[in-house]
Design brief:
By secondary structure, this protein is α/β, with parallel strands linked by helices. Helices cover about 35% and strands about 15% of the residues.
Length: about 525
Amino acid sequence: MTYRNKRRARRAGLAIAVTALLATAASTSPVGGPTASAAPSVPRVATAPPWCPTVPGHQVDCGTLDRPLAEGRSALGTVKVSYAVVRHSAPGAAKGTVAVNTGGPGQVVIERAPIFGHALGDLLKEHDLLLVDPRGTGHSERIPCGVTDAEYRFGTRTQQRDAVKRCAANLGPRAAAYTSAATADDIDAARARLGVLQLSLYGLSYGTYLMPVYASRHPERVRSIVQSGAYPLAFDPLGRPQAQAVSTTLRRVCERSAPAACDGKQAIRDLTTAAARLGTQPMAVPVATEHGTYSVRFTEGKLANLLYEAASREVGAAPDRPSLLGRLPAALNRFANGDVSALRTLVQEEGASGSEEDQAPYIGVVCNDYRKPWSTEAPVSVRWRQYRAALAGVDHGEHGAFSAEGFNEGPTDGGDVCIGWPRENTAPEPQPTHPQLPDVPVLVLSGDLDANTPDANGVRAARQFRDGRFFSVPNTGHVPEWEPTGCVTGVSTRFLRTGDPGDTSCLRGLAPITVEAVRT
């Protein structure tokens, strides 16, 4: 399982696309009446720092907090964490404050203030918006580890494991700074600085992991939660739901294409052939980025990553144009019949976004927090035995068209990638997977073409809460808000206002994606 698909969100092109795609909902009264989460009047920042964003029609206040680098380890010092508040535009006190996290782990948040200012529209007439850059990202203080996105992303599995170990060695005790609990507490420190009583939490992708962590640590501060592209804290560390969802999405896009562009059963057979072939005969693919050209050893694991992570991204954003997912049935069919060119092209196009950004915020959270199929207290040699035993215990077919070992070499935040992460320099306690969570309204949305955080994980994410409601959004991928009609964002913003999604019938009317025809 991986959530690095937010990587492209750093690029200006995505920001423009999201701004164009998201829409606003009709106004209604807030949860608990007009004064439910009204914040007391607090002084506005007199002089904004130079990085403070501009949002048309809104005042934006920005500041920086000195936060403990690691809880209970005062000798490590502090880290500066930056926040921005997009103030509501209507007169009077805010009726609530919405805190957003855009995923990653390690994605910037503050620089997207103009995007959210447009996307949330009328909601921000009476609600404030709190944006906090996670430590190590954006305008918060950097704590780098010397591993870049491109080298980590394009490396072989052995190189990825070595990069993780190098990251941990370079960070030393500071590795403990990178946890979801620390980020959650940073958000709450910003809330306290602003004098806000409660937050409505809006998590996208990894944000759907982070926000329940916040809710478990600060339950009295939570008003409601929206989760989009969600997965539970207690997710399957061997990624079986994702592997199975790859076949499901291929079948669905073929069945829904008109005229019939492909046969779903054949697409799954082609995928099975491709996975088996690449498992024994990896393909060398040169991938050009703006920082150089990389030779990628394209294995069964890399294929898995392409299909469940990359192919889930932006699905439904432009349904009239073929996305990566819409082009895959044809490419897999050609590969199965001996023509590697189409699949090679897709790998090269997808890889072009590789960057030089430091991966400490990503690797640190992944290796400190996420569930592992081994004991983190065990030495590495024992971890390997436990991991191999876990793979050996997987039944045939549980990873769909992939082998268990092959699929688990694909995730950059799962499988064996963190097996060498040292226990002594990391968080004192792993992130609990079944914490007590507040009884508040929770909305969970999953795209039914999302193999990254598939419906099965969305259902489990909703079940973490007593009042969790789950909706599967047809013909959309990871983070359904990508769709262009504004339907999904309308449901989300209505829920943030009222604690109820209202009329969701528009979800059933979203257009199928375009699929490239398989040549016969």
